[in-house]
UniProtKB/TrEMBL annotation:
Belongs to the Thz kinase family. This is Hydroxyethylthiazole kinase. Catalyzes the phosphorylation of the hydroxyl group of 4-methyl-5-beta-hydroxyethylthiazole (THZ). It holds the Pfam family HK. It catalyses: 5-(2-hydroxyethyl)-4-methylthiazole + ATP = 4-methyl-5-(2-phosphooxyethyl)-thiazole + ADP + H(+).
Amino acid sequence: MGPDQLARALRERSPLVQCLTNFVSMDLVANLLNAAGASPAMVHDPEEAAELAGLASAVVVNIGTPSPRWVEGMHAAAGAAHDRGIPWVLDPVAVGATAYRRSIVADLLPLQPTVIRGNASEILALATQAGAGRGVDATDDSEAVKGDAEALARQTGSVVVVSGAADVVTDGERTELVRGGDSRMPLISALGCASTALVAAACAIIDDPVEASVSAMALLARAGQAAGGTAVGPGSLRPAILDALWATGELA
Ligand SMILES: Nc1ncnc2c1ncn2[C@@H]1O[C@H](COP(=O)(O)OP(=O)(O)OP(=O)(O)O)[C@@H](O)[C@H]1O
Ligand SMILES: Cc1ncsc1CCO
Ligand SMILES: [Mg+2]
């Protein structure tokens, strides 16, 4: 399914996407999902996370601003998704930066995320157990870590998506590259987190997680490229991406 068809299907079906995502990203993730036609719900507390996952069509678990109670909610939601056989997508924000983040991810991986979406430094850190990256931003190139992404996919059984100038999507056997976008996209904090949520929404529509991830990343790349035509910097690029996503679903 191409990005236009995905945009149309998201509009028609409006999948409920439960997001346990970091404080920085909540606004952009919710608004980007809305613009793309999906229905976001930011529900993370362990009191209700599993219950909501019982209603959702996909779940996002993003470790960007973790604390013990949130991590409990992540286990509850990912566990419920796993048990129900609905897709859940892990965003291992800054996993190379601290021991706490490494242990959170190590404890979540047995719940078999459908997709792991990170930037090149995060995927390199997961694949090599080394401390790649300085913080939340990538210091590595996505195409340069293609082999590491493939190895991580084989090791975990998850589809791995590496965002960057070219997005890499792999299940360890099949690898696809998505080009496009705008070079100012990484300056929009949490756009990567929003791409993770769009991948989750696509997984609710398309059964094959490689195809879903390629479609979602291509939809965002196309919106970023279109938005880049009018944007004068990252500030105006951000709302222009939301408008371009909405226009894709409107015109498709
Ligand atoms: N140089 C580039 N050219 C075009 N698009 C890019 C480039 N770098 C990243 N992107 C796109 O920007 C989006 C965000 O990717 P990025 O790698 O910045 O994620 P991230 O580091 O996880 O972000 P965050 O942690 O801020 O959420 C993706 O859709 C990706 O395809
Ligand atoms: C800046 C930042 N810090 C923790 S999470 C986050 C959002 C991008 O991942
Ligand atoms: Mg970034």
